[in-house]
Amino acid sequence: MIDMQWLIDERREEYDETTKASRRLIKQAWEKNPHESHRLALINATKGNINLTMYHESALRALFFKEKTNLLNSDHLNNMKQDIQERAEKAALTYATFLQTINTMDLVLESIPGAIRLTCHVKPGQIGMHMIQDLEWSRSDDKKGNNKSHV
């Protein structure tokens, strides 16, 4: 097993330059098409992966599940929603930039010829892992209000 960071460190200068170029291209595309569905889906998914521990559980329930709370007024909830949105957009840009960078560099195959890169989020042309067990890290929140999670 190879840690991706090892591969990046071996080609640090190229990685940093490619990251700058990738970030510029992605930002331009996102600014040109702010309502593009893949961009919005990534930002929405990222909301579940950013650190939200600074917020009280009831405030998060009020925001994501529309539960009533007496702790915060609507201005507080709006500020919290805006903060979460901005942080999710920043994290989504960082993630998209990373993926674009390693794909542009063809980092894995050039570093390890003949390597097979597995993913648990399979797309056409990729090899994926079939999850046979309900693993906590592969869960996503159901934002329909029934407080259930699914794989």
Compact description:
The protein is mainly alpha-helical and about 150 residues long.
For the structure shown, list the relevant keywords.
disordered C terminus; elongated; single chain; 151 residues; 5% strand; 6 helices; two-stranded antiparallel ribbon; mainly alpha
Structure description:
The protein is mainly alpha-helical. Helices cover 56% and strands 5% of the residues. Strands 1-2 form a two-stranded parallel ribbon. Strands 3-4 form a two-stranded antiparallel sheet. A hairpin with a 7-residue loop joins β3 (140-141) and β4 (149-150). The longest helix has 32 residues, at 74-105. The protein starts with a helix and ends with a strand. The relative contact order is 0.13.
> How much helicity do the residues have?
55-70%
Tell me about the biggest sheet?
2 strands, parallel
Strand order of the largest sheet: 1-2
Helix-and-strand structural type: mainly alpha
Shape: elongated
Q: Tell me the number of helical segments per DSSP (H or I, 4 or more residues long).
A: 6
Cα-atom Rg, whole angstroms?
A: 19 Å
Task: Please indicate the percent range of residues in DSSP E strands (runs of 2 or more).
Answer: 5-15%
The termini sit apart by 25 Å
Spans of at least 5 consecutive residues whose pLDDT stays below 50 are 137-145, 147-151
Query: What does the average pLDDT come to?
Result: 83
Please write the string of helix (H) and strand (E) elements: HHHHHHEEEE
How many individual β-strands?
A: 4
